[in-house]
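seq/struct pair 1
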Amino acid sequence: MAVILAALSHTTAANGQGWSAEVSAGRLVYDPALANVGTSNLMGSLRYDTRREAWVYGAAALPAGDAGNLWGAGGAGGRFTLPALQTGRASVGADLGAHGFSFRDRLVDLTGSGFALDAMPFARLTSGAGFVEARGGWRGQTLSFAGIRDSRGVFETGARGGYGSTVRVEGDAHWVHASEGTYPFVGASVAYDASPVTVWGQVGKWLATDLDERVWALGTGVSVGVRTTVWGNVRQEAPDPLYWNPSRRTWSVGLTQRLGRLPAPAVPLSASPAGTVLVRLPAGDAPAGAVSIAGDFNNWQPAPMQREGSNWIIRLSLMPGVYHYTFRSATGEWFVPVSTAGRRDDGMGGFVAVLVVT
């Protein structure tokens, strides 16, 4: 699912919760269908991301040349945590995804179909703007084409960590365990996100005797107003032990359009003369039950909020500065509603709100 996940990741980063539509063009390789053939395509997608980090999407690609392939796909998944095992700094859960696809190879005039699944349990520790995460699980795919059905799966284990908000740095080490051997990989990424411009880069290398190739990627995005993001990327890809594709270079450019209700913009909040700041959360935007708040102003330890009418509120004694925070439900779910001023992607699979005290 490399091309779908790479393309739709722009939607995730640009939009967060809610509906988004995307159009893109480039030289793409759709691994589940034809891992060895890169073609020029025009692609469109529609996606919805929920408050609880689940997502669903549909995508279709039209060939931009005579040798291009026509394909469509859809899927659902997300990052799911176990509330009973979630504390202020630790969480346990799984990244799950299911994708179905169909395609038509115009060169041989044949159609194919299949699906791909991935299940990656994780354990995560966070502290301020930093995190470490251990993960391990399975991913696989099934393809039916020209009367032949082929299935393959691999196990994967590894760890990653990162730090930062406006500038984010992450490191990754994982091992892919296939029937023919084990393939270690190490990589790193850095991203600079200062609206309206985002720039990111990735580098990595496989360390097995029979798979020692390097990978790299560069990308950028520019916000045009509050609803539109224009982006582009280029990638040098190495073989993936799930598909055993050849090395290849791909690129794409596109536009992501946010649909529906938009989050409130980040605005400075002034402290009172006594240094007290009121944080308000509409009860309709929160799950049932009591609500807490945690941020770098209280070492990310949940503090209970009080119900006043139709809002949950808390008064914080804060010095001037920039603070990051999130809310926690009675069941242990971390959340930041789309209506929260200063809501932004934290770069680690969730959301955080920014509070500016002047």
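seq/struct pair 2
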Amino acid sequence: MTPPYRATANVDPRLTIDLARHYVRIALGHVSREYPHKADHVMDGPGDVYLPRRAHPVFYGSFDWHSCVHGFWLLVRLRRMFPAMPEAAAIEALIDERFADDNIRAELAYLARASSRGFERPYGWAWLLKLAAELRADTSPRARPWASSLAPLADAFAARFKAFLPLQTYPVRAGSHANSAFALILASDYAASHGDQALHDALVRSARAWFGTNAGAQAWEPSGEDFLSPTLCAAQAMRRLLPDDEFRAWLARYLPELHAAAPASLFIPAIVSDRSDGRIGHLDGLNLSRAWAWRDLAGVLAGKAREAALAAAQAHLDAGMPHVAGDYMGEHWLATYAVLAMSER
């Protein structure tokens, strides 16, 4: 199959310290940039004025709340991977400042508003838990107070998942923030790192109910503003939440032609026509998140199916990596997905 795009020379799928430092500098530049800002805010009355830094003193930057959360995840992940990088001191000073107890309490107070019930559900919820899991994985003395400071906020979002999942009869299969499977993926990392068996069990029940009988996925994607693959996210969620043998049997029913690189739509990187348009620019993120998904799934595949998955991962990296920086509409979030693709297997 000849890809319908001009690939660069193959991107090195390894995350080097030079690339990590580049991404850290990008993130340090946007997690403290308050404007432009896209709010997820319900006004309860004419006096309910929203100012990002006042409402969210921890996560006010990066264009929107959830992007700021995963900007911090990127900083914590890369500091843990490369603790000697020159930028580590700036990361530490920033987190010390933002994770102050008063700031965490203000974030919790915003969540306590009756009209905040659906705030950032489920994407922001999941990324906050992913950040907490990353802090738990960092065993350095410097990181322990950060994990403790964030814990009340993580507890609140874990509780929201446990209350909401039994109410969600059907999954959302969109290729963007509302995607249910993606939320399961990130929340499962938190459940594992924190030993939250109740959350893990809730995630498993939802995954089985939503995707357990799925077979012969058609993969009618991408849509015009996807940054996630609904088809591959479901597979990643099931990989994390099912026993290995059960998952392999499920995957054989779900995507029975992987060995033949089919459905073809999953193996062809998306074309991005206008990176200054935030929604069209999502498709750069789709290329990166698919690279992550294919590298993830390759770990349980063999033979031609594994070869096809690894080739697809490389093609999507080649398509997405040159566009992580440039226009702010992509720059405030794309590096996160590049790091996922290159540091999670």
